[in-house]
Design a protein that fits this description.
The chain is of the alpha/beta class. It has helices at residues 16-28, 45-51, 55-59, 67-71, 94-104, 123-126, 146-167, 180-196, 208-219, 223-240, and strands spanning 6-11, 33-37, 62-64, 76-80, 91-92, 110-114, 131-133. Strand 1 (6-11), helix 1 and strand 2 (33-37) form a beta-alpha-beta unit.
């Protein structure tokens, strides 16, 4: 099963016991790639106590200072969120999110993001996601512990991987999906050209770049398509040169 390239990324976690409980939830479902982004606590004795026999995941967990580093080589990113946002992201249910992660994990690293326990993911962090997944909890009490949320989605990921093994579908998607780093370079290029052509006023950007980010995240251009888009932008730049 292509689970080794599915990263569970905890962004700014504040309680080391939660980190350990997440490691345990992951290991029970065959996931092993735990990443910590700017953790607000060290991985200490409470983490190992809660991890039970998942100590190895804590030992090999990758700690990075920022989210961009964690996602640089990822080809698909899903963020978790329980709150409605002013600008909507493409929304998936847990089963569909798991299917997408397993399918795209065959091409290379993919990521599932979980935000800080109290605040969740910020809009800026969700900007780095192609889609958002929400767990349909009781609307009168929708609060889920971080490790419980990881457990639910890890279960769906494992079920999707097992289903893929059973069907062993022939062929498949031959597209080479763009990495997060490739997409970020495209967004920077796009913003630069829009400013040069005065389509975007940098003093009053409003939500234009965020809306365009949603558009292209939804489209999920592959490497060839992204090269075409970058080529169009480059041709515009050449026309504007004296």
């Amino acid at each position: 099963m292509p689970l080794s390239d599915i990263r569970i990324i905890l962004v700014r976690p504040t309680h080391d016991g939660n980190i350990g409980a997440c490691a345990r939830a992951m290991k029970t479902m065959g996931l092993s790639a735990l990443w910590l982004v700017a953790p607000q606590t060290r991985v200490g004795e409470p983490a190992y106590a809660m991890a039970a026999h998942a100590d190895d995941l804590l030992h090999q967990a990758v700690t990075v200072p920022d989210l961009e580093t964690a996602l640089a080589d990822c080809r698909y990113v899903v963020g978790t969120s329980a709150r409605p946002r002013r600008i909507e992201w493409p929304a998936l249910d847990p089963r569909e999110a798991a299917r997408q992660l397993v399918e795209r994990g065959c091409d290379g690293p993919v990521a599932l993001l979980f935000g800080q326990e109290r605040t969740g993911l910020t809009n800026e962090e969700l900007d780095r996601c192609q889609a958002v997944v929400s767990i349909p909890a009781n609307p009168d009490y929708p609060s889920l512990n971080l490790a419980a949320a990881v457990q639910i989605l890890a279960y769906e990921i494992r079920q999707s991987a097992l289903e893929g093994e059973k069907h062993d579908e022939e062929g498949g998607d031959a597209r080479t999906h763009s990495t997060r780093e490739d997409m970020q370079r495209f967004y920077e290029h796009l913003e630069r050209v829009m400013i040069e052509t005065r389509f975007l006023d940098p003093a009053k950007p409003r939500f234009l770049m965020r809306r365009l980010t949603r558009l292209f995240n939804r489209a999920q251009p592959d490497e060839n398509e992204l090269n075409i888009l970058r080529g169009i932008l480059t041709s515009v730049e050449r026309l504007r040169r004296p």
